[in-house]
Design a protein that fits this description.
The chain is an alpha+beta fold. The protein is 31% helix and 21% strand. The protein contains ten helices and 18 strands. The longest helix is centred in the last third of the chain and has 20 residues.
């Protein structure tokens, strides 16, 4: 392990290797979720990892480790202190994104990164270039895990899973470490927005929780996008193209006109960052008679999110306005809500997380997520759940990578968080 003043915690140095071993074991299990499935979980192969986690939790002595009918893994780490401590939850998700293949993952371990370009051996067209990925430059001398260039890596969120498991293993092996009762959960289908659909808050029994599903080391997130999925259905008039003059109304062309009318220089993922929201078409299917377009709208501000939805409705109406035979139907479904308002009512969570990051040898940084987590919906349902870093980068792509030292720091942060939570006055 490299020596770096940013990573001054002996515990972080100790836990990096155990976390790495678990991570390498987990990422080779294909757990890719599916957006088109009508089952829960959306893919049964997610349960391959879930069943392994139950076995490993039981091997650690957590006798109540269980996999329920919906694919949720839960377990309890008993308290080691005599006084009452509110139950704290630790949560990560086992599934990986549908965007890039998660099958036949071949992780590459790079020891003592030299700061140069990193080739991805199975894909000569891809590399990790610090000139393009500045976060890489901060990890010279560190140990990295990359893909082979043909699949994603799965650090989102198998890094979080591995780090929670390594922290639990440490706590069970060191009962002298003071902490309250901890509830562990590993969820399916987070990547398709269904990670908490059947999550039983009452059975979980936590007063507060943290997801370990972030990115850059040291970051804590107490704010996410609010999210709406918008479906736009264009209906035309079908006709044999040889005899179509004056009769045919092509729904594909209506949808194309609508997409072309969306803003080009703003309000899209490729033109926004920071706190700017967007509208993003990501699925189109159908034929000349009927075409369905699925979009997502995102913003940190509810009023602006409503404006984005109103824009979609207006542009869809304009796309069919020139032909009275054309029809359009727009429907919207709330996916998750910014957790900031609720978490502002629980400052003790962020204070505990910041102190845990410091004890793990890093400087805490409070940020927002241009996306959502299981914690977004859990917070909305009454379980305040901020998000913690797991150290991964370039998620949902063949260029995904993670730093082993950051994994060790995440494990140490989790251990310290459990201690800090037990130190709080009752």
């Amino acid at each position: 392990m490299a020596s770096d003043p940013r990573y001054s915690s002996p515990l972080a140095a100790e836990l990096g290797e155990p976390a790495l071993a678990r991570f390498l074991r987990y990422v080779v299990i294909d757990t890719q979720a599916s957006e088109s499935s009508d089952t829960y979980p959306s893919t049964l192969k997610q349960l391959d990892l879930s069943r392994l986690l139950v076995e490993e939790l039981k091997e650690l002595g957590l006798e109540d480790a269980d996999l329920d009918e919906h694919g949720y893994v839960t377990a309890t780490v008993p308290s080691t202190v005599p006084h009452e401590v509110p139950v704290l939850g630790l949560i990560a998700h086992v599934d990986t994104s549908p965007a890039v293949s998660g099958a036949d993952v071949k992780p590459q371990l790079v020891t003592g990164y030299d700061g140069g370009r990193l080739a991805l051996p199975a894909n000569p067209d891809l590399e990790l270039d610090p000139a393009e990925l500045p976060e890489l430059s901060k990890h010279v001398g560190h140990d990295l895990v990359t893909t082979d260039g043909t699949t994603l890596l799965g650090a989102d969120d198998k890094a979080g899973v591995a780090e929670i498991m390594a922290a639990v293993a440490y706590l069970t092996a060191h009962p002298e470490v003071p902490h309250g009762r901890l509830r562990i959960a590993f969820t399916p289908d987070e990547e398709v927005g269904e990670g908490t659909t059947f999550f039983d808050l009452e059975a979980f029994g936590a007063a507060a929780a943290f997801t370990v599903d972030g990115s850059t080391a040291g970051e804590i997130q107490d704010e996410t996008f609010s999210a709406v999925e918008i479906t736009v259905r264009f209906a035309g008039v079908s006709m044999h193209p040889g005899f179509a003059k004056g009769h045919l109304v092509n729904a594909i062309k209506l949808a194309a006109d609508f997409v072309a009318s969306l803003p080009r220089d703003t309000l899209s993922p490729e033109t926004t960052d920071g706190r700017d929201g967007f509208v993003h078409p990501y699925l189109i299917e159908g034929h000349g008679a009927e075409t369905r377009l699925v979009m997502i709208a995102r913003d940190f501000d509810e009023d602006r999110l409503a404006d984005h939805e109103a824009l979609v409705r207006r542009l869809a109406a304009e796309a069919v306005a020139t032909d009275e035979r054309a029809r359009v139907e727009v429907s919207a479904r709330r996916q998750y809500t910014n957790m900031k308002r609720v978490l502002d009512e629980h400052p003790e969570l962020i204070e505990a997380a910041e102190e845990a990051v410091r004890r793990a040898g890093l400087e805490p940084r409070l940020t927002w997520i241009r996306g959502g987590t299981d914690g977004s919906r859990l917070t909305e349902r009454g379980l305040p759940t901020p998000n913690l870093f797991d150290g991964g980068h370039e998620y949902h792509s063949e260029r995904e990578w993670i730093c082993v030292q950051d994994m060790g720091a995440a494990c140490a942060m989790i251990v310290h968080l459990a201690q800090i939570w037990a130190e709080r006055p009752s």
